[in-house]
Amino acid sequence: MVVAMALCERDGSQLATVTDQQPVRTSGIGWLLPLVVLTVADYAWQVPYLVHQYGPDWPARLSLSVPLVVACGWFGYGIWLQLTGSRAATAVLAGFLLAEVSFYLLHNASGAMLAELLLSNPVLVIASILGYLNTIVAVCYLIALLHRGAASIDRPSVVPPDGRWR
């Protein structure tokens, strides 16, 4: 309410109702930047990994990229919701991070971690290192999301003009 009144005082308009104001974003891209950079790098590296693993047969294996495309979309949607101040942002982004961490934990439980890192194949080693770093960062962001709470991260301070929460 104080923010809404300050905005009105600054531009000279009157405060008719709180619902006439735009939602106030409480966070920007700054705190998300490490997560975005590492996740994009990890997912982008999957292309050379796919080509390297399957050689000339990689076009026949494009169906393997469907989960990757879905995960990228999920991540992008979560980041977009976070940046637009949506109430659903924390749930969507935390769901993505939980799925990603679960995948890597399952992957590592299969014994793949040591086998991948002991190989002298640089494409596989880079993919593995990016994946493990991504897992660590995802766990840190999950903890941050839970610690900061949905209200302090992404809930607008005032009701949007249409009166509905996104």
Give a summary of the structure in a few sentences.
With 166 residues, the chain is mainly alpha-helical. It is built from six helices and no strands.
Can you give keywords for this protein?
67% helix, mainly alpha, disordered N terminus, single chain
Can you describe this structure?
With 166 residues, this protein is mainly α. It has six helices and no strands. It has helices at 2-11, 33-54, 66-84, 89-109, 112-117, 122-154. The model is unreliable at 1-26 and 150-158 (pLDDT under 50).
Secondary structure layout plus pairing:
Elements: H1 2-11, H2 33-54, H3 66-84, H4 89-109, H5 112-117, H6 122-154
Helix pairs in contact: 2-6, 3-4, 4-6
Return Rg in Å.
21 Å
Strand content: under 5%
Number of helices: 6
Classify the helix fraction into a percent range.
55-70%
Class from secondary-structure proportions: mainly alpha
Number of strands: 0
Give the rounded overall mean pLDDT.
Answer: 75
Low-confidence stretches: 1-26, 150-158
